[in-house]
Amino acid sequence: MALAAAEKTAQYRHRMRASGLRQAQLWVLDSTRPGFADRIRRQVVALRDHPSEPDIRGFVEGAALQIEGWQ
Fold this sequence. Notes:
Blueprint: H1 5-18, H2 36-48, H3 53-67
């Protein structure tokens, strides 16, 4: 008899925990939501002329360099 979906999920989570991982849930902005692009565009324009922009850009670019090659 095939395992129920809940049983399969429980077994999968058990295997993941046994391998040293734990579950985490993240909420991120929904890029498919109407108005998302406009919201980002407004934020970019507001940041463009901000005195902290060079520092923020350096931080973001530095972070991006650290993730190259991740698998």
